[in-house]
Amino acid sequence: MADVSLHGVAKSFGATEILRDINLSVEDGEFVVFVGPSGCGKSTLLRIIAGLETVSGGEIRIDKKRVNELPPADRKIAMVFQSYALYPHMNVYKNMAFGLKFAKTDKAEADRRVRQAAEILKLTPLLDRKPRELSGGQRQRVAIGRAIVRNPSVFLFDEPLSNLDAALRVNTRLEIAKLHRDLGATMIYVTHDQVEAMTLASKIVVLNQGRIEQVGAPLELYRSPRNLFVAGFIGSPRMNFIKGQVLRAEGSRVTIGFAGTEAALDVRPGSVKPGDPVTVGIRPEHMEAGGTDSTSLRGTIDAVEQLGESSYVYMRLASGDDVIVRAPGETEATPGGTYIAHVPSRALHVFDASGLSVLPDRS
Amino acid sequence: MTIRPGRIAVHIALVLYTILALGPIFLILINAFKTRRAIFADPLGLPNAQTLTTIGFDRVFANSDFGLYFFNSLTVTVVSLVLIVLIGAMAAWALTEYRFRGSTILSLYLAIGIMVPIRLGSVSILRMMVELNLVNTLTALILVYVAQGLPLAILILGEFIQQIPKDLRDAARCDGVSEYRIFFSIILPLISPAIATVAVFTMVPVWNDLWFPLILAPGDGKQTITLGVQQFIGQYVTDWNAVLASLTLAIAPVLVLYLLFSRYLVRGLTAGAVK
User: Fold this and answer.
1) What's the rounded Cα separation, in Å, for the pair B153 and B196?
2) N or C: which end of chain B has fewer CB atoms below 10 A?
3) What value, to the nearest 5°, has the Cα angle with vertex A257 and ends A252 and A259?
4) Do B144 and B209 touch, CB atoms closer than 8 A?
């Protein structure tokens, strides 16, 4: 078991900066998920921790020891790759035992560990099969098994579920969560799927363009995104953003006008002044159908998606902003009609011109 | 399944080509077992009761050190093959896997070897071998053939190594496998079809070469089989029975090796098509 910490880690390939000034600490036993759009540097960061990439600057510590100069094998890590990376010419047993052979593990001990891992992952009947004779989900389990037998302090997962179909993905997600509970090991997991991030993580790290945008527990990021990027990235469908303006301010209480309506709420003192342009954010699931309150949005319905337990109403406001509202499953909304959605002011997010949230810390 | 005209045309072309390629070999085989008179009277005829003879083979074994030549050829071919495949695969792995200063220049330099025929350097090679005291040794031939075979081997193997997912090597590194082990335990098994391809492409010209044995190892019992055959070809008289018999014997080992490798060869040429 070990903690991982990154101090001012930077990486550039030639003139292109992939990562800059990454500072992060991962506690022992934590399940940390790196999430972000493709090209944000999350995989590179994972590979840096694994030791498969060198850094251009900064320091990586695992178990409080500097590991910058150590090869992957000496970092007490194990990595599970997106492509599974099973050795195609070896059977399942050999795939899992291969690394142990070079770690000078005692033969009987290696055998015990492989059989135990196979037991945990329900791979025992498949030990003699070659990777090409396995299904995607089974291959994934072998890849995880190969990581387990190394008995690592830190597990690294690089988008392990993205090659699986939807049903299997949910299953494997649960298995990984269970594995984390059972092993209690530190896990670092990279994904571009915010649902995986929300469901698995004890801590999410949102990355964008080589920088950490925000670090926090899943619900913390959901409730109080620090900036527009995190607000837009966490949550599905994404948060609606509407251009607005600060109308009045009395101490920390401000009134914000947007899309023909206004709302009063508390902000961090001094963060905005009357006349400032702001972006108002509201999650589709926080709006309520109907409502004649002063804070409600009225628009023309573009499309309605019925999902059964709920429906998504896509509407265009008079101000030109497009808004998605989560409506009850059996909505009467039809394209072309008018829709009114109530916006509770406590569910509003407000971001200043530079994209930073101006709300006081809610957590 | 309906037979399309396109398919028939393709098959006709393939059959014609096969006849063209196998014809001479077939001629050598049938004529090796015929009397001299029959060879000239009816070169295309099969040996029959009157014309069947093994006199060519008898003469080959009686009048020449056929076994020795055969052994020389085999030694040169096998050693060259092993060295080309081993060094070629290692170089290809290094050039594709590791980025270092000058790696691009080095790959280009090696690629040029494909375009420049090594025979252009015959005179300097001979001089070099004289200096090194390697004339009339098999080592001289092996060195030349390794140099001749490496560029293409590196090119082909490099292409194949590039197709091996990078994750595999990274996974092995995480497993604590040394770079040498990664090469021998993971890369080599995975490119075995490519190695078979390279082996066939390399083996045939080496086995058949007459030029370098003639220049570098023409005597001292270091002659290869192609050179050995030459002793039956005279300026005025050619012992066709012996020539054809020794050619027949010379074909055999290449054929065996080819059959061994061809299973992989087909896989090598079509690798990546199915996946």
Assistant:
1) 11
2) N
3) 150
4) no
**What own/partner pairs with CB < 8 Å and gap ≥ 24 does B105-109 have?**
B107/B154, B107/B158
User: Which pTM does this prediction carry?
Assistant: 0.79
Residue A281 CA, chain-centre distance (Å), reads 20
Residue that the structure tokens 């004649």 belong to: A292
Domain boundaries, chain B: 65-238+255-270
Verify whether the Cβ–Cβ distance B171 to A74 is below 8 Å.
no
Question: E-assigned strands of chain B?
Answer: none
pLDDT at B275: 35
| pLDDT, block means (10 residues), chain A with 363 residues | 89 89 93 92 92 91 91 89 88 90 84 90 90 88 90 91 86 89 91 90 93 94 93 91 91 88 87 90 87 76 91 91 89 87 88 91 60
Q: Tell me the residue length of chain B.
A: 275
Chain A hits for B174, CB-CB cut-off 8 Å, are: 50-52, 72-73, 77-79, 99
- To 10 degrees, what angle do helices B192-208 and B138-163 make? 150
Q: Inform me whether the C-beta atom of residue B174 falls under 8 Å from chain A C-beta atoms.
A: yes
By CA distance, what is A72's nearest residue in B? B174
- Give residues 184 to 223 of B whose Cβ lies within 8 Å of A: 185-186, 189-190
Residue A88 has its nearest CB partner, among B174, B181, B190, at B190
The CATH number that domain B65-238+255-270 falls under is 1.10.3720.10
Considering the domain delimited by A237-351, tell me its CATH architecture.
Beta Barrel (2.40)
